[in-house]
Amino acid sequence: MLEIMGLSAEIEGVQVLRQVDFALAEGATVALIGRNGAGKTSLLRAIMGFMKVTGGSIAFAGRALAEVKPHDRPRLGIGYAPEDRRLFSTFTIEENIRLPAEVMKVLPSEIARRLEGIYQVLPELADLRHRPAAGLSGGQGKMAALARALMVGQRLILLDEPFQGLAPVLAQRYAAALRALRDSHPDIALLITESNPSLLRNFAERAYAIERGEVTEVAGGLAASSLAAAGLH
Fold first, then answer.
1. What are the backbone angles phi and psi of residue 132, rounded to the nearest 5°?
2. Which terminus of the chain is less hemmed in, N or C, by CB atoms within 10 Å?
3. pTM of the full predicted structure?
């Protein structure tokens, strides 16, 4: 479904992605593992059209994304939850979740249907939906960002460092939400970036490693990636 071939990108003249080849099938859950600054966020931003691509191609469901403006890519069914969440603090949680679909002029009945499914996956947010986003904890903010990505990400969701900064208990709750999402929406593909592969060991079926903007598939998946990170390979 998502096919990246020979992708290169730069920021202010500095190469941040180098000849990346990457594929993600419908319904797959894939982890992109790498240290801070390795290029994880850059790859997600390139998919969303927020990076200067200098070579290669990105195709989604057979369509070249170079032909699609960044603000139109969510209309293809791609949801993106950046690491910094980017919630509107004066809006309620539900207003933040609904916003991208309203901007896309999705019918109110369809927004209501999607909200119902989101609250089934993230029941904690249903109880907090009328609370201003400014009052959210870090973990709740991460879940709200996931919900907002789900509102438009009917085919692919990109999650950038979703466990970053979460206490172990909150990380477990977030992982449970991802498992619920996987069970209830098996056709949605997930691409999750993470610095610590052990957090996704029992969740993602495939893993890629990124270092200095170069991506390689990890033989043996996340188990092998976790051992490598611990220096045990």
1. -60, 140
2. C
3. 0.91
